[in-house]
Structures are given as C-alpha cells and as structure tokens.
What does this fold into?
Amino acid sequence: MWRWLHPYAKPEATYRLNKKLLPWFAWPGVVLLAVGLVWGLVFAPADYQQGDSYRIIFIHVPSAMWAMGFYVGMAVAALIAVVWQIRTAEWALMAIAPVGAVLTFISLFTGAIWGHPMWGTWWIWDARLTSQLILLFLYLGVMALYVAFEDQRTGAKAAGILAMVGVINIPIIHYSVYWWNTLHQGSTITQMVTRLEAPTMPAEMLWPLLVNLFGFLGVCAALVIMRLNNEILRREVRRPWAIAILKGGQ
Amino acid sequence: MARVSNTALLQQLIRRDLRVALRQRSEFLNPIIFLLVVITLFPLAVGPSADTLARIAPGVIWVSALLSAMLGLERMFRDDFRDGALEHMLLLPCPVELAVLGKVIVHWLLTALPLLLISPLLALLLSLPMQALPILIVTLLLGTPVLSAVGAIGVALTVSLNRGGALLSLLLLPLLIPLLIFATAALEAATYNLSAAGPLAMMAAFLVLALGLSPLAVKAALQVSVN
It folds into this structure.
C-alpha cells in the first residue's frame, strides 16, 4: 500500500498521473452521457404506468448513486490524508466535496420534479429523501469547516475527520429504505440483479440507465481530476516544475 | 515519578472539571433556562389545546434539548484551549481517549442531569400523557450521552476558531438527526400505548457506538486543533 501510494505524495507525480488519466475519464464520460441521455430521454419506451415522466430516472438515479459514492471516495481520501499525512490526499478531499454536493443537489432536485406528478407532492419526509438531504448537509458541513480555518492545511485535516465521522451516515442511507420503507420505490438496479429470472426493469430501460451511470461517473471524475490539478498548481506555483508547466502552456 | 492509575486520573480530571464549572454556574444553567423558555414559546405559538400539545410534545422536547445542548457544548474544550490546559491534557500519562471520556462525562453531568431532573416538568407543561413520562426519561438517559459524545467531536474540530458557534450546529445537527428520529418515535409509541422497545434498542445501539468511537475522533480532532 505504502509503496503504491508513496510516489503520489509528491504533487508533481500526482499532477502527471492526473494529466494521463484525465482523457480516459473525460471523453468516455462525455460520450456515454450524451448517448445515455438521448437514448433514455428519446428512444427508451415509455413506462406503462408512469408514462414519459419516469424518464427523469436517467438523471435521478446516477446522481443519487454517485452522490453517495463520491462521499465514500472523499472519506477514503481523508483516511489516506490522516493515516499517511499525504498533502495531495487532503487536496483531493477538497476537490471531491463540491462535486459531490452538486450531485446530491441534482438528485434531490430531480427527485422533487419526479415526485410532483407521481406522488402529488414536491417533497415528502420519506426516509431516503431525508437521508439524502442529510448527506447534502454533511457535504456543506465539510466545505464550511474547511473554509472556516485560516490555515488551509488545518482546515483540510479537520474537514477530513468530519468526513470520516459522516461516513457512518452512508449505511444509514442505504438501509433506511428497508427500515422505514414508506413512499419511495425500492432500488431498481439491485432488484434487477437479484431477480434475474423476473427483472423489474426491461432491458430497453436498464441499458440507457447503466450507460448514464458510467457517463456520470466519467464526467464527475474528470471534474474532480481537473479541480485537483488546479489545486496542485495553485499550491505549487512557486516550484520550478509548476512554473515550467504554466509557461509551457501544457 | 509515581505512576498514577488511569481510574484515579480520570477521577481527578472529572473532579477538577466539576469544580471549575461550579465556579461559573451561569455557564451551565443558561442552556437549561433557554430550554424552559423555548418550551414555553410553543404553547403560545401553536395554541394551548392539550390535544395539540400532547401530539407535538415529543418533537418539541427533543428539538429543544438538541438546540440547548448546542449552546452549552462549546465550553467543553474552549476555556481549556484558551489557557493552555488542553495541551496538558493531550500530554497526560494516560490515553487521551480516557481524558476525553472524562470531559464527556462532566458535560453530561452538567447539562443532561438537570435536563433529566426537570423532564417531568417539561412533560407537564406540554401535557404529555403520563404513561409516556418513563419513556421520556429513558430516551433522555440513552440519548443525552450520545449528544455529549458526538458533540465533543464537533467542539474539538471548531475549538480553535473564534466564531465556531453557528458552524458547530451545522456540523453536529445532521449527525444527530437519527437520534432525534428514534427518540421521538419511542415517545410517540408510548403516547399511543404501544411498545417503544424497538426505537429504544436503536438508541442504545447509538449510545454504544458513540461512546466507543467518538473519543478516537475527538483525539484526532484535538490534535489538529491544538497543533
């Protein structure tokens, strides 16, 4: 683990790795997202019960899933930062937070738009919705704690501890649907996987959803990588290697 | 230097903190008075009918308890941080987690114990059905240590900030929402003469989790703040 992580404690190495990884996330992400959205929003068949309004699932489900996924990613970065004292992990933590917060907001927003025609209300205090709202608050708390410190290093460390404490919330979100199980429908994809003989979602709908899922991941990971590289350059702006890159325009 | 046993040290820490607190009584009495005033506001705002009050009583009591706890939390580490005693606490010849546990216990004694004592009064003011009173006391007994333990994490993170008050609530209240949910669920069940064992068991689980894990997080947070 240490041998694998160690080189990336050096900001320059992380920067170069990011430069290499970026196209592998950005382009497939953009293409998959474009394909998935057109497929889902235009060509996928309408639902026999919900009509066309179910189509928002192609945005709602990926954003909700990655909102949680990125929080876990943030907590992992925080763990690496605390255990091995690696500065680039602290920057990664703060690069992930706003992207995850926006994903959480998108999932809540699209959920409200979906809920209005289906449940007859914009918002309901269902367990899953509430947990997602708490997740948004956790993201905001991490970001607010980070900016409250004058010393950014201290701020990132404190925010990291908070992120790790908040990760307890992730299983609560996941199991809340089983604990309370009120209005929100069960998870579509896991039902598909666990009941292969009688899937609840037809393949014409599932495929665009999966394509969108990876499209969201690619685009958001690319955003995080770009944010992280910006942060590295900003912190290392006086170092020769950073000056060379900035002057060379690459 | 003679080695002091951990329990003796813990006792000393608790005694010292209690003595310091008792010399500035208003610090820990104010949150309780705040709680009483907030509870008084609700009947004035929603109307004095006993039915309405009994229905909202579980939520009102617990929300007020959470908010008043936010007021008193800051003093857990703030004064010690300012006069440097906190650094000495981190250097004590005993696990830091133990000292943190001492701080949590003192905070619980100073804020939750008075709350427990006046809880029958709160139930009376909000016309909570009498059969729910024992459950109220049990939820407070199980929930307030969680409040102190999780609160310690937030205070440890924000203690070096000048204006940490509002931030503290933003950090802590989302983490305490599950506590609120299960406490009010237990109280509501008791109001309708149903068994409250399920939510109470969840609260007991939170208690074990919070007391076991939060000292670790507090230790890490204090080391970041003091450094």
Observations:
- Residues 7-226 of chain B form one domain.
- Chain B touches chain A at residues 153, 157-158, 160-161, 164, 167, 170-171, 173-175, 177-178, 209, 217, 220-221, 224-225, 227 (CB under 8 Å).
- The radius of gyration of chain B is 18 Å.
